[in-house]
Amino acid sequence: MDITPQEVAETMAMVSQQNLDLRTITMGISLMGCADEDMARMRTKVYDHITRTAEHLVETADALEREYGIPIANKRVSVTPIAQIAAACPDSDLSPLASTLDRAADTLGIDFIGGFSALVQKGMGGADRRLIASIPTALATTERVCSSVNVASTRAGINMDAVLLMAQTIVETARRTTARDCCGAAKLVVFANMVEDSPFMAGAIHGTGEADAVINVGVSGPGVMAAALRQLPESANLMDVAERIKETAFKITRAGELMSREASRRLGVEKGIVDLSLAPTPAAGDSVAEILEIIGVGRTGGPGTTCALALLNDAVKKGGVMASSSVGGLSGAFIPVSEDAGMIRAAREGVLTLEKLEAMTSVCSVGLDMIAVPGDTTAETIAGLIADEMAIGIINSKTTAVRVIPAIGHDVGDTLEFGGLLGTAPVMPISHFAGEVLAHRGGRFPAPLNSLKN
Length: 454
Known about the structure:
Layout: H1 5-18, E1 22-29, H2 39-53, H3 57-68, E2 72-79, H4 82-86, H5 95-108, E3 112-119, H6 126-140, E4 145-153, E5 157-159, H7 160-176, E6 188-192, E7 213-219, H8 222-230, H9 238-267, E8 270-278, H10 288-295, H11 305-321, E9 332-333, H12 341-348, H13 354-361, E10 368-374, H14 379-395, E11 400-407, E12 415-419, E13 423-426, H15 437-441, E14 444-445
Helix pairs in contact: 1-8, 1-9, 2-5, 3-9, 5-6, 6-7, 7-14, 8-9, 8-10, 9-11
């Protein structure tokens, strides 16, 4: 389908007046040919392959920004989960590979690189354990590296040993970066039903079913959506609201489709997916919480919030799939607390609680995202939080995730400052009644009945 001049004009208006941007252009790169039993040789292969493959990524993105007038907030790279290539190497410490990823990112001039990752939903191999053990050091000694671990899936159930291990890893990662407001934990996410083509950090990896290199684009646009909904009268019914969301999501996705086509053509790599995710920023007018309140919720976190979010998420997907044959990734609405001005306000006022956020994750695109909890929160409590979220994911056959930051040395009411897109995280209260028995039972939560689809 060709891009029309009218679409270009509408897009320019969305950019100039409503904060539309391309949140990220992410090149996925396969490292399967870089495995080596010698760590030094493998690091050289990884660095050379990434920097050669993505050599022109930033300059191409910059050129597209100038030519089409659509800002591209982040340029990123995702790679094959490092645990998969590290299986060839016996070294116990895999953090040198994270340093190599960071050096490659610096050379390329990109914002983030994702893939210091492992998939352990059914069991953990030796390389998986070594990678997870290396995460605290890796994230404490790098600037741009992001890490993710998939501990559950609808087809496999929940690896409860991995849940506890990741909770302990999150706490240790926060401790290692205490001097930087525990920012290491802000670059670490635990998944159920992880997707292999998401362009969004911290959970972007390059899946094993992908081509050698692909371009995935993440489009944002909460400001555009909010502006469109403000044009509706309060008397408009929810069918009218849903239709307006669909129409707007279509227009936003078309902008991403155009940029995705051009980027892949110019870089000479496969076109991947367009991820239409309403990803907020701390900037005024760029908030998913604000959209929910325009729909009619008194304050995000109050009664009706989950209903409004479900409507938004569903309509965004329906509009997006009409605009591109390659909609993928997560595509929906994100609710990261620290990255959304409206969420921050609601959390500070006590309207938005962890319990309400958990309910909202059953209908949104990801999960409990960018949430700071008191520094004395135990690993067992965090394991319970992760387990609850993983259960929502596997029972509902959807992606869910937890990116939680133990605020070491801080308590409820304090604030962590990450800066940039990561924003500001108010420390939220969390129940301390998780107990220790569940977290330490271990084993595997069996795959649910709806996993039997063959």
